[in-house]
Design goal:
The protein is of the alpha+beta class. The chain has helices spanning 3-18, 36-48, 61-70, 73-77, 81-92, 113-126, 128-135, 149-155, 161-175, 183-204, 297-304, 324-328, 335-338, 363-368; strands spanning 26-32, 53-59, 96-101, 141-145, 208-213, 216-221, 229-230, 233-234, 240-241, 250-252, 259-264, 269-271, 274-284, 287-295, 313-318, 344-348, 377-381, 388-392, 398-403, 406-407. Bound molecules: zinc ion (2 copies).
Length: 412
């Protein structure tokens, strides 16, 4: 099939299975100008589906870099009110949000990490209200990816540029199931499998999960009433959507005060345009008390210094090591892809929807239940082929959940 046809199928999948766009609903798209061809396909399909508005927030890596290099610090940290109001007005109107992302892990490598950290913190603060719509599933949202030249070259450094881009399209189409006969049906099936895994874990209501592999020996306490989620999510009116495409994970939150032990990352992490690699973190009572990194130590330090919550965990996710992304044997340098290759945790904010009643709790109640809060939410990978996970029941008994990087349970 011609690539163009697959792009059409991909756009349709993003609108139907991704954000589940409804007639008379507005659609806001975040996209890079390099992806304009694909964005136009998405926009045309959205209008055909009866969208009442299609608005694109365009970005460009080169221009972002120029700003980081040249702007005075107060410009980087001052998010204008009109920008915040624009985002909020779409959210308040119940718009669907589609982010079309690409990776550029080296973009900001020569920019002072403290400038990046300050800018990230400022935008985190400015968009706090807007982010609540996303983090609490009040509006349908989805993140998908398309290739850029820089990204393709990063993954396939030995291929000529054009071939690298083509290869990356192929990988993406395969991993998000667009190359299957009926991608929408394939996603329905996939969502059902993930939801069976969630049902199993929710039925068990473990008080902790214990992870053991080379470099990792850690116990994640789970809050009472924690909820495992995976695949699709639901907005208050009952409409389904898929926040991440691809997604291979089932995830919950650890108790922010009950993480103890050492965890070693199994893939590099790209944060704020910088690479952190070969790193490990040691936790006591939920807080990072020690950390090391072979590369990007300063970036990791700045990330942890963002706020108190950045030193605690907000997500714990299980992904079999044999996921399609693992099998591709590629490092994508992009969390959306790399996080779905492997079990992972996230530093920073937890999703309140991972706790019974969490969406209705105020900040103090959330804290009392062990739900972490932060301006950041940064996933990093800890899964591997030698990872064993045990579930700890209320009386302290350990039951196998993962053996050698795979489910130790069958869900049928
Ligand atoms: Zn995750
Ligand atoms: Zn996450």
């Amino acid at each position: 099939m011609a690539e163009r046809e697959l792009m059409e199928k991909y756009a349709e999948l993003a609108l139907k299975t991704g954000v589940n766009l409804q007639k008379n609903q507005a659609l806001m798209i975040n996209a890079s100008i390099e992806g304009a061809d694909f964005v136009r396909i998405v926009a045309r399909k959205a209008w055909e589906m009866g969208a009442k508005n299609v608005h694109i927030n365009w970005s460009d890596d080169e221009l972002s870099l120029l700003k980081f290099q040249n702007a005075p610090e107060e410009t980087l940290t001052n998010i204008p009110d009109w920008q915040i109001a624009k985002q909020l007005s779409f959210a308040e109107d119940g718009a669907a949000l589609l982010s079309i992302s690409s990776a550029n892990p080296d973009l900001l490598k020569d920019v002072d990490p403290s400038r990046i950290a300050k800018a990230n913190k400022a935008s985190g603060e400015a968009l706090k209200e807007f982010r609540k719509y996303i983090m609490n599933d009040r509006i349908p949202w989805s993140i998908i990816s398309i290739p850029t030249k820089v990204w393709a070259e990063k993954i396939f450094p030995d291929l000529p540029m054009e071939e690298a881009v083509e290869q990356l399209w192929e990988q993406i189409f395969h991993i998000v199931r667009v190359d299957q006969e009926d991608p929408i049906a394939a996603w329905d099936e996939h969502n059902r499998t993930l939801s069976k895994a969630c049902d199993y874990l929710n039925g068990k209501a473990y008080q902790a999960l214990v992870f053991k592999s080379e470099g990792t020996d850690i116990r994640f306490g789970l809050p009472e009433g924690h909820i495992w989620k995976g695949g699709g999510a639901v907005i208050p009116n009952g409409n389904h959507f898929n926040p991440n495409m691809p997604t291979e994970e089932v995830f919950t939150m650890p108790n922010k005060y009950q993480v103890d032990g050492k965890v070693t990352a199994t893939k590099p992490l790209v944060y704020g345009g910088n690479l952190i690699d070969g790193f490990s973190l040691t936790f006591k009572d939920g807080k990072v008390v020690d950390f090391e990194a072979e590369q990007g130590y300063e970036t990791l330090k700045h990330l942890l210094d963002t706020d108190e919550g950045a030193q605690r965990l907000g997500e714990l996710a299980l992904v079999p090591h044999a996921s399609p992304i693992s099998q591709s044997d590629l490092i994508f340098f992009h969390t959306l892809y790399d996080e779905n290759a492997s079990c992972h945790v996230a530093l920073g904010k937890a999703y309140p929807t991972n706790l019974q009643g969490g969406s209705d709790m105020d900040e103090q109640e959330l804290d009392q239940h062990g739900v972490n809060d932060s301006l950041v939410h940064v996933d990093f990978m800890i899964g591997s082929a030698d990872l064993d996970i045990d579930g700890e029941t209320a009386d302290g008994t350990l039951e196998p959940v993962f053996r050698q990087g795979a489910w130790a349970i069958s869900f049928d």
